[in-house]
Specification:
Rossmann fold; Taq DNA Polymerase, Chain T, domain 4; alpha/beta; 6-stranded mixed beta sheet; Nucleotidyltransferase, domain 5
Length: about 950
């Protein structure tokens, strides 16, 4: 079957750019690649899933069209293209041409007209045509062989619309009636005026009744009041709007079937381009695991976006491919073309010689090779070391664990020597791995992953990427040794020593070299103190916590699971009764049919590409207020998730060697500086509902001689904003130990503390926390369920009473706009590349981050410092108490009963004094037989 895809280039590029506006992608040089990445992903998805035989991407040109001549206001008020998008456009064109896909334009005609013309010509030649665009105008083109292909967005799947779907969506009998509706309704984005007073709903109703715009004018006397007056007065404007909305089918372009054929992408053109854009994952997706990015000379060639017509009469964007090839000069270094000395230390004598060398160094770099990625479950395969660039050693460790322990122990004097500094990439993994072999690594640390995290917290920090970005060196890929990820991936234990030697010694060598690159860069951004006093010392704390783990009460979870099962069954029964039919609630298809066909909860319910109704949480939440069956379904889902994700899953995470759960903490994930955790994700254990909090009951001390101690910062983010802003009213409220939300309400409403009502306190609490996240009057009105005017008045009064906070917000924003970043109390930077964006949505997101990041980040720094100091004091006093968990602003400890009263003041003091502040820091400490009881 001949299958032609015609892509609306500019619409898809805009869509790609704004889809990532809240989480934009940047290269290490600061180039925003959101549009390029989004467009390329969309293109690859279509090529893979739909397997088109023919394809083209179509663009408008800057030349005026007949529409501009006919109507002066046509597209006259469109915002200028965002600066980042304008920079992206030439790259997108290069990407398209690199895929050997033709780019088509024609002066005097819009992309819609070109697509329409080509679609009809292709249909006549037996093609099935897909017009790939998010624009609604294309509904007028569909036929039995022409479809609209709407790309996926916001979690929704892509959607294919044919005649049936268009007729249903527009409530019409013929697809050409789309033009009539658009003529009546208009299109504000394109400057099509339509007829005043007629919106989408009215336009559909009128066309349904009269069939066409012309027939409405003939029967305008049947209309009433203002509607009749507008229809008769703006008749010519309506007809002009219909003409503007009509896609032309007579553009002078030929259907070049051979030129439109899909063929393999140009590796020569795309590889250097992907390298410049740092498209690692995309590059591997297109070219396989051998692809890598490299340092490039800046591309000097600019594309003439709207070039001259070709011999066929088709206008294309001209690119001199040879110029591109010359400009994108690859400077790839790898193990095969770079001098190096990597040694295999596989005998007692060779290891002794290596240990002698290592013992003489002030600093060494080391790495571990293992049988897996979880240090609590895998075995050591080998150790690698480096002490100077280009030099490295690999020490193989056998599968026999007695022999393995013996070999590792040989290196104890070096690894445990606190006078020898240790360098590593994600060195916490290596420290934790060695703990299982009774080695306690000591010495000052330098972790290249964390160093880069401080330098650029929003990007990725894995070694291969850092090597390619900063050393212009492509490391040996792990897949060359054990194959790609998946069930068939091999094991490092099975790889030849010589091959592992090259890979492992290279890792240590590269990490050593990265340290030399990052140290001066940290000085440049004043990040040395942050790394040396917080992030690096914290590694030892987290390694101990992960090694220690936490005990789980299996009986409690088993009983809770039974309770949940009973409750889930009851909700299921209730839903069946209210629905009047039994069905699979977990089936989106069956659920959608019940809610939207049987119960008719939403006549405008949306469907996915497969034709089933959308029943995601956002859809159900929008219906919950007016439907108790939807509320029951949401509760049913919540309990099911609680049961499957935590109650039933936690026992499966218990390490059989220890009988405990060992979570893994991430220092380099959250850009704010907050810690996160996985396996399990402690931060996501529900606490807002009573049932969710019950999960905490299963976290218990090691035995009856121990107690759980929980210490939680009280309203730490509000205390930090008071400290940073120095607002006198908020500071005084905390100094006087008043309830901050009551004090805020008293200030805002001008009343005494004892006069504040529960509703006023609730409003004040919403404003206090909303301010941190840049909440608007609209957002506050939505969260409180009050009119926007009332919300605006509350915010206005808030800023009158707390002028220091308003000044902080203004000063922070100005600093961010001038410097491109904001700082925490400890100097942690959050870079805000979009703070001066011309696009209001993109800029607004950056502005909210500018306000929030110093607060969130300072809270993160505070608890990290407290963890380091508590851990240090526990060791200094030789206490058996152990820190076991960190969750948000809370620390959890497993403490011998006879040490509880000793550790409580240690915890309290170190948490309260982690950062010196004028605002008092409050900590709530509790004890119990489980985490829930202690908290």
């Amino acid at each position: 079957m001949k299958k032609l895809f015609l892509l609306d280039g500019m619409a898809l590029i805009y869509r790609a750019h704004f889809a990532l506006s809240k989480t934009p992608r940047f290269t290490s040089n600061g180039l925003n690649t959101s549009a390029m990445m989004g467009f390329t992903n969309t293109l690859l998805d279509v090529l893979k899933k739909e397997a088109p035989t023919h394809m083209a991407v179509v663009f408008d040109t800057e030349a005026p069209t007949e529409r501009h001549t006919d109507f002066e206001g046509y597209k006259a008020h469109r915002e200028a293209m965002p600066e980042d998008l304008a920079k992206a456009l030439p790259y997108v064109i290069k990407i398209i041409l690199g895929f050997n896909i033709p780019v088509i334009t024609s002066d005097g005609y819009e992309a819609d007209d070109i697509i329409g013309t080509l679609a009809k010509k292709a249909e006549q030649k037996g093609y099935t045509v897909y017009c790939m665009t998010p624009d609604k105008d294309f509904g007028q083109l569909v036929s039995d062989n022409i479809f609209i292909y709407k790309p996926a967005r916001m979690g929704n799947e892509m959607e294919i619309q044919g005649v049936k779907e268009i007729l249903a969506k527009w409530e019409i009998e013929r697809v050409d009636q789309v033009i009539d509706i658009l003529g009546l309704w208009g299109d504000a984005v394109d400057g099509i005026p339509g007829i005043p007073g007629i919106g989408e709903k009215t336009a559909k109703a009128l066309i349904k009744q009269y069939g066409s715009m012309e027939n409405i004018f003939e029967h305008s006397h049947e209309l009433k009041g203002k509607q009749r007056e507008n229809v008769e007065q703006f008749k010519e404007q309506g007809l002009m709007s219909k003409k503007l909305a009509t896609i032309l089918l007579n553009v002078p372009v030929e259907l070049d079937e051979e030129g439109l054929e899909v063929c393999a992408p140009s590796k020569e053109l795309l590889e250097p381009l992907f390298a410049e854009l740092e498209f690692r994952t995309l590059g591997k997706r297109v070219f396989g695991d051998d692809f890598s990015i490299t340092e490039l000379k800046p591309a000097g060639t600019q594309i003439d976006l709207f070039g001259n017509p070709t011999a066929t009469g088709r206008t294309t964007m001209t690119v001199d491919v040879e110029d591109i090839r010359e400009d994108l000069i690859i400077a790839a270094k790898n193990i095969n073309n770079t001098p190096h000395e990597y040694h295999l230390a596989d005998t007692l004598e060779k290891r002794a010689e290596l240990i002698k060398i290592l013992a003489q160094q002030p600093t060494i770099c080391f790495d571990t090779e293992t049988t897996g990625t979880d240090p609590n479950h895998c075995e050591l395969v080998g150790l690698s070391f480096s002490v100077k660039p280009g030099q490295g050693w690999y020490v193989p460790v056998p599968a026999d664990q007695t022999e393995a322990q013996s070999i590792v122990t040989e290196f104890r004097t070096v690894l445990e020597n606190e006078n020898i500094g240790k360098i590593g990439q994600n060195i916490k993994f290596d420290i934790l791995m060695l703990k299982w072999y009774n080695i306690e690594v000591n010495g000052t640390l330098f972790d290249t992953m964390l160093a880069h995290y401080i330098l650029d917290p929003d990007t990725r920090h894995n070694m291969d990427i850092l090597s390619e970005n900063y050393l212009s060196y492509k490391p040996v890929s792990i897949t060359e040794l054990i194959g790609p990820k998946g069930k068939n991936q091999g094991n490092m234990r099975d790889v030849d020593f010589e091959k592992i030697k090259e890979y492992a010694a290279e890792d240590a060598d590269i990490t050593l070299q990265l340290k030399d690159v990052f140290e001066p860069k940290l000085k440049e951004v004043e990040g040395e103190k942050l790394v040396n006093e917080i992030e690096h010392p914290l590694i030892y704390v987290l390694a101990d916590m992960e090694y220690e783990g936490v005990k789980i009460d299996h009986d409690t979870l088993r009983e809770f699971s039974k309770q949940l099962e009973t409750d889930i069954a009851q909700y299921e029964k209730t839903v069946y009764e209210k629905a009047g039919v039994k069905f699979n609630i977990a089936s989106p298809k069956q659920l959608g049919e019940v809610l939207f066909e049987k119960l008719m909860l939403d006549p405008k319910a949306k469907k996915t590409k497969t034709g089933q109704y959308q029943t995601g949480e956002d859809v159900l939440l929008s219906l919950a207020a007016k439907s108790d069956i939807v509320r029951d379904i949401l509760d049913f889902r919540q309990l099911q998730k609680l049961k499957s994700t935590y109650v039933d899953a936690l026992p499966q995470m218990v390490n059989p060697k220890t009988g405990r759960v060992h979570t893994s903490y991430n220092q380099a994930v959250a850009a704010t500086g907050r810690l996160s955790s996985v396996n399990p994700n402690l931060q996501n254990i529900p606490i807002r509902t009573e049932r969710g909090r019950e999960v905490r009951k299963a976290f218990i001390p090691r035995d009856s001689n121990h107690t759980i101690v929980s210490a939680d910062y009280s309203q730490i983010e509000l205390r930090i904003i008071a400290e940073i802003s120095k607002d006198p009213n908020m500071m005084q409220a905390f100094i006087n130990n008043h309830d901050i939300h009551t004090a805020t309400a008293a200030n805002v409403y001008g009343i005494g503390l004892d006069e504040v009502t529960s509703d006023q306190r609730r409003n004040a609490k919403a404003v206090n926390f909303g301010i941190i996240y840049g909440q608007s009057a609209f957002g506050l009105s939505q969260s409180l369920g009050i009119p926007r005017k009332e919300a605006a008045e509350i915010i206005e009064q808030y800023f009158i009473q707390f002028a220091g906070i308003k000044q902080y917000m203004s000063d922070t924003m100005n600093f961010a706009r001038e410097n491109g970043y904001v700082c925490t109390l400890m100097g942690r930077r959050r870079y805000l590349r979009d703070i001066n964006s011309a696009n209001a949505t993109v800029r607004g997101f950056a502005e909210r981050n500018a306000i929030n990041a110093p607060i969130q980040g300072s809270a993160a720094d505070m608890i990290k410092i407290a963890m380091i100091n508590i851990h240090r004091e526990f060791k200094a006093q030789k206490l058996d108490a152990r820190m076991t968990m960190q969750v948000h602003d809370e620390l959890v400890f497993d403490v011998p009963n006879n040490e509880v009263e000793i550790v409580k003041p240690i915890i309290m003091h170190n948490m309260k004094t982690a950062i010196k502040t004028e605002v008092p820091i409050m900590v709530e400490i509790g004890t119990g037989l489980n985490w829930l009881e202690a908290h």
